[in-house]
Design goal:
Layout: H1 2-25, E1 32-36, E2 42-45, E3 54-58, E4 63-69, E5 76-79, E6 85-88, E7 90-95, E8 98-103, E9 107-108, E10 124-127, E11 130-132, E12 144-150, E13 156-160, E14 163-170, E15 173-180, E16 188-192, E17 203-204, E18 221-224, E19 229-234, E20 237-240, E21 248-255, E22 264-269, E23 273-280, E24 291-299
Antiparallel strand pairs: 1-4, 1-9, 2-3, 4-7, 5-6, 7-8, 10-16, 11-15, 12-13, 12-16, 14-15, 17-21, 18-19, 19-20, 21-22, 22-23, 23-24
C-alpha cells in the first residue's frame, strides 16, 4: 500500500510539473484578433516604433491576430496628422504570415458581425466627431465626407474632410472615436455617395432639449412632451418626424443641407440608448416631406 501511495504521489508531482511548464511557456501568448479601423490602412512595422521600417500596409476592416503585448508594453503618445495626440501601446500581431507591430488605438476589439455598421440607406452616413461607446463604423469607400462647421461670426459652412477611427480603453470599456484631418472642431459629418452637401443656413442646438428649444429652433415644429412625438409643419401640411422606438429628445440641426430650399433635420431620439437621425427632404417619396437616411448611435459606456 505504501509503495502504491508513493507511485501516486510521484505521478501527481510529474503531472503538476508538466502543466506548470506548459503554463509558463504560454505566458504572453494571446489568442485574440483585432480589426484595423484606420480608414487609410495601418502599417505593420518591424519594431515598436514609428521610426522602424514598414513590412506592409494592412487595409481598413482587415483582421490581424494579436500575438502578445509589445516589448516594452508601456503607454506611448503619438501625434496624428491633424496634430491630435493618441495614447496607446505597440502590439505584436500577425497578418497573412507576416509578424510585426501595430499601434493599439487603430485596432478595435470588435466581432466581425458588427463591422461595418449597417446603413439605413446605402448612400448616406451620419457621424459625430469624438468618442462614443457604440459601433458607428459607417465609413464607406466612394463616399464624400462633408463636415459642418460654425464660424466665429455665427454662420455655418461646409467643408470636405477625411475621417478615420481610433479606440481608447478607460475603466475597462473600449470606446471608439471618430476623427478628421481638421484641427478646428466641427458639428457633425455627413457621408454621401451621390448627393452634394451644402449649407446655406441653419440652426444647431445639440445640448438643448425640445422644451428648451421652443420659440427658437422648433418654430413650426409641434412636440408632444408626453409621447415624445414630433411633427413639422410645411405649406400648412403636418409631417410626422417621430420615431417608433424612441421619444424625440432634441432637434440637433435644422437647415437646408441638400440645397433644395427645404429645411432638413437631425433629431436625437432617446438618451441612454438612443440615436441621432438625419432626415433629408431631397430623398422623400412623393407625398412626403422628409426621409430618414442615416443614424448615429449614442449611449453611455457603463
Amino acid at each position: 500500500m505504501k509503495n502504491l501511495i508513493k507511485v501516486i504521489i510521484s505521478f501527481l508531482i510529474i503531472m503538476w510539473t508538466i502543466n506548470s511548464n506548459q503554463a509558463q511557456s504560454m505566458v504572453g501568448a494571446v489568442n485574440e484578433s483585432r480589426l484595423v479601423i484606420a480608414t487609410s490602412g495601418l502599417n505593420l512595422r518591424t519594431a515598436p516604433s514609428l521610426e522602424s521600417s514598414v513590412i506592409r500596409l494592412v487595409k481598413y476592416g482587415h483582421e490581424v491576430q494579436l500575438l502578445e503585448l509589445g516589448v516594452p508594453a508601456k503607454l506611448e503618445t503619438i501625434q496624428t496628422g491633424a496634430g491630435k495626440p493618441l495614447n496607446g501601446q505597440w502590439l505584436r500581431v500577425s497578418y497573412r504570415g507576416d509578424e510585426g507591430y501595430m499601434f493599439s488605438p487603430f485596432l478595435a476589439k470588435i466581432e466581425s458581425q458588427y463591422f461595418p455598421t449597417e446603413l439605413v440607406d446605402d448612400n448616406f452616413a451620419l457621424l459625430l466627431e469624438g468618442p462614443n461607446c457604440y459601433y458607428n463604423f459607417q465609413y464607406r469607400r466612394g463616399f464624400d465626407w462633408t463636415g459642418i462647421y460654425k464660424t466665429v461670426s455665427g454662420k455655418y459652412r461646409s467643408k470636405k474632410v477625411n475621417i478615420t477611427y481610433s479606440t481608447s480603453n478607460e475603466m475597462g470599456h473600449e470606446s471608439y472615436s471618430i476623427d478628421t484631418d481638421e484641427q478646428e472642431d466641427l458639428l457633425f459629418i455627413i457621408g454621401t455617395r451621390n448627393t452634394p452637401i451644402k449649407v446655406n443656413k441653419g440652426l444647431y442646438s445639440y445640448y438643448n432639449t425640445l422644451n428648451e428649444q421652443k420659440g427658437q429652433i422648433i418654430d413650426q415644429v409641434y412636440y408632444d412632451s408626453m409621447t415624445g412625438a414630433v411633427n413639422i409643419c410645411h405649406d400648412n401640411v403636418s409631417y410626422d418626424l417621430s420615431d417608433k422606438t424612441h421619444a424625440a429628445m432634441s432637434i440637433v440641426w435644422r437647415g437646408d443641407l441638400d440645397d433644395d430650399g427645404i429645411d432638413d433635420f437631425i433629431i436625437q431620439y432617446g438618451e441612454k440608448d438612443g440615436k441621432i437621425v438625419l432626415h433629408l427632404s431631397s430623398q422623400a417619396k412623393a407625398g412626403e416631406l422628409h426621409k430618414a437616411v442615416a443614424e448615429y448611435y449614442i449611449g453611455y459606456c457603463c
